[in-house]
Write a structure and sequence with these properties.
The chain is mainly beta and 494 residues long. The protein has 6 helices and 31 strands. It has helices at 43-57, 67-73, 88-94, 110-116, 137-149, 152-158; strands at 6-14, 17-18, 64-65, 124-132, 165-172, 189-197, 219-225, 229-235, 245-252, 255-264, 269-273, 280-289, 292-298, 302-303, 312-319, 322-328, 339-346, 349-357, 363-367, 374-383, 386-387, 391-392, 396-397, 405-411, 416-421, 432-439, 442-451, 456-459, 469-476, 479-480, 484-485. Helix 1 (43-57) packs parallel to helix 5 (137-149).
Length: 494
């Protein structure tokens, strides 16, 4: 049964008997800084008083308060999921869901939490409920108790003669905080959890406090998004026990993603991969030692996005002790490009020479090279997620002429005539032009030359009916420069 602004859910396990579930499960946005459940404002004491009033009126023995069950119901720590989990009420509040099973932890719930706490029982059960519309914990405890008693399944747990102990926990939203676990955004929310048990015994009655030697939370946690990954850095806590490792756990708007990485005790950075580009995540970072995982520190939210694609149509042109390149920016940049880089390589590898240009730039020049030496350019686009895929230019010789302009070809009988406009040179003067014939198999070995001031030339010895292209180069004392390639042409006898 549910009333306006209230939702209930019941679960009982006594030997092999299980009652049905009432209500619905929802999981939405996670808050990196959930409201504390430690100070309940008298909520648990008031609810226990009211529960025992109902039991007394029915001639039933009062339920005894169990500190161990109370930790499970409220904000005690549970490590059985592979990541740190709070008690039932606090975990549902902090991670925006409402369910008897722990979000992101398969089918685990109070059965596993009771066993992990070392509590021995011959039966146990759980009621959970939420309401909104008040900030008064005593009023919330009264209203939720009334609602639970009005629901047959929840009343059966409260009034069961088989249960002897109970732990009561609560969580309430902070001022201005929104909780979405009911399926839509709500403020002024209280969540209650009642954990019942029969014949409680063992070391957790009462449960001793958790070991004090858990690591303290790291500090200065900062995350950045990458291509399908999130990288996070942190600093040591100001004090606290030594750690044997650190863990970085990834969360999104639906909760824990089951993506994590563990790194060494001296590490201060980690990267978690396998994430979805375009989604937003945050990271919880915990220190670990032999006692378990310590307190969490939370990063900022980050959006995972791809690095840029590869530039296209990259072309290098030699200059006087320099190489210039031009390109088209990638068509799939992901996050906006913030710059381009052009790196110069020679036969020995990277020369240490480069140019960094603007996000919209499509040309760059690198100076300080050696005339007469061959180079090629490697062009990258960059965005906040990193360097994209590079594209390489053809080889060019520094100090050689630039490409001839406006190359045209016309066929003849076994010949092709070419014309061009003069190439520019910032190095030694041009001393000749070369016209080289290519077919579908590559360079044919056929070529022609023309004088330094010529703008026409002919290549003979071609096969009529075959398709050719021609590369026209200018030449100076350092060698042939960058070519200009013609359109296709077919010589013929007619």
């Amino acid at each position: 049964m549910a009333t306006t602004g209230t939702k209930l859910r019941t679960w009982t396990a006594t030997l092999s008997v299980t009652l049905g579930l009432l209500g619905g499960l929802a999981a939405t946005a996670v808050s990196p800084s959930p409201a504390s459940a430690a100070d309940d404002g008298g909520f648990a004491a008031k609810m226990l008083e009211l529960v025992n009033q109902h039991r007394s009126g029915a001639g039933l023995a009062a339920l005894q308060r169990s500190e161990g069950l109370g930790r499970i119901a409220e904000d005690g720590r549970y490590d059985g999921c592979g990541f740190p989990v709070l008690g039932r009420a606090a975990d549902m509040g902090a991670r925006n869901y409402f369910s008897h099973t722990i979000a992101g932890c398969g089918t685990q719930g109070i059965t596993q939490m009771i066993a992990a706490a070392g509590i021995k029982t011959t039966g146990h059960g759980e009621n959970i409920a939420w309401m909104n519309g008040t900030t008064d914990p005593l009023l919330a405890a009264t209203r939720l108790t009334n609602d639970l008693m009005a629901s047959p399944g929840h009343r059966a747990n409260i009034m069961s003669p088989n249960f002897t102990h109970v732990g009561i926990g609560s969580w309430r939203s902070a001022s201005g905080q929104t909780w979405n676990g009911g399926g839509f955004p709500l403020t002024n929310v209280f969540i209650a959890a009642q954990v019942f048990a029969k014949n409680v015994s063992g070391p957790s009655t009462p449960v001793p406090p958790p070991p004090p030697a858990l690591p303290n939370a790291p500090t200065a946690v900062a995350a950045t998004g990458g291509d399908g990954s999130v990288s996070v850095t942190w600093a040591l806590p100001a004090s606290g026990p030594a750690v044997d490792s650190y863990g970085a756990f990834i969360w999104d708007a639906s909760g824990y993603t089951n993506r994590f990485v563990t790194v060494c005790a001296t590490c201060r950075a980690a990267t978690v991969s396998g994430l979805a580009n375009g989604r937003t995540y945050f990271v919880s970072v915990h220190g670990h030692n032999t006692t378990g995982w310590g307190a969490a520190a939370y990063s900022n939210w980050v959006t995972v996005a791809a690095v840029p694609g590869a530039p296209t149509e990259v072309r290098a042109v030699p200059g006087n002790a320099s190489v210039s390149a031009s390109w088209r920016s990638p068509t799939n940049p992901g996050t906006a490009i913030d710059g381009h880089a052009m790196f110069i390589f020679d036969a020995d590898g990277y020369t240490g020479k480069y140019a960094w240009v603007c996000a919209t730039c499509t040309t760059a020049t690198v100076t300080g090279l050696v005339n007469g030496r061959s180079y090629f350019a490697v062009v990258y686009a960059h965005n906040p997620n990193g360097w994209g895929t590079p594209t390489l230019s053809e080889w060019v010789i520094a100090g050689t002429p630039g490409p001839p302009g406006n190359v045209r070809v016309s066929p003849g009988n076994g010949t092709v005539a070419a014309s061009w406009t003069a190439a520019s040179t910032s190095g030694p003067a041009i001393d000749l032009y070369g016209i080289f014939a290519y077919d579908a198999n590559g360079y044919t070995g056929l070529y022609g030359t023309a004088c330094a001031t010529c703008t026409t030339g002919t290549v003979a010895g071609l096969i009529n009916g075959r398709t050719y292209t021609f590369a026209v180069f200018a030449h100076n004392a350092f060698g042939f420069g960058t070519p200009t390639v013609s359109t296709q042409v077919v010589p013929s006898a007619g």
